[in-house]
Amino acid sequence: MSDRSDRPPHLRETGDGETPSPRPRLAQSPSGSYRVQGKAVPTTSGVLLVLAGEIDQDSAHEVRRMLEAALRAGPGNLELDLTAVTFCDSSGLNAVLAVRRAAESDGRRLVVQAAGPRVRHLFDLTGASSVLGLSDP
């Protein structure tokens, strides 16, 4: 597989042909299924948190904990990649916005680098896209 420069840096292959893959942290829903995964990757400007799966009222609390842990992981900004998030409701949006406020109170930023179509639609409808720095596709 070739390195696609149009992919975010954390999804590009490394020199040895492997894509970086920190161990995901899984959030288990009350029904017992795993619904969301998170990977924190250090960057030169802070921490990148890559989320995948569904963010709803069952998983939003764990997502908020992942966001807060990534924010505490080091100095700098918190960047989010939500490309692989297949569903996000108002609970998930609230978790992201709450951690954004915490970051700003500490003089830092939370920025969404990328989002899948469903998440982007939610962010666009609510006006969160501009607040979270999510640029046009």
Main CATH class: Alpha Beta
Overall average residue pLDDT: 82
What CATH architecture would you give? Answer: 2-Layer Sandwich
How far from one another are the termini?
24 Å
Q: Please give the number of β-strands.
A: 5
Biggest beta sheet attributes: 5 strands, mixed
Strand order of the largest sheet: 1-2-3-4-5
Low-confidence stretches: 1-7, 10-31
Fold-level CATH name: Transcription Regulator spoIIAA
Proportion of beta-strand residues: 25-35%
Count of domains: 1
Element string (H = helix, E = strand): EEEHEHEHH
Number of helices: 4
Fourth-level CATH superfamily: STAS domain
Helix content: 25-40%
Q: What gross morphology would you assign?
A: globular
**Class derived from helix and strand content:** alpha/beta
What is the radius of gyration computed over CA atoms, rounded to a whole number of angstroms? 14 Å
Please supply descriptive tags for the structure shown above.
single chain, Transcription Regulator spoIIAA, 4 helices
List the helices and strands and how they pair.
Elements: E1 25-28, E2 34-43, E3 46-55, H1 60-72, E4 77-88, H2 90-105, E5 110-115, H3 117-126, H4 128-131
Parallel strand pairs: 3-4, 4-5
Antiparallel strand pairs: 1-2, 2-3
Helix pairs in contact: 1-2
Family: Belongs to the anti-sigma-factor antagonist family.
Pfam families: STAS_2 (PF13466)
InterPro entries: Anti-sigma_ant (IPR003658), MlaB-like_STAS (IPR058548), STAS_dom (IPR002645), STAS_dom_sf (IPR036513)
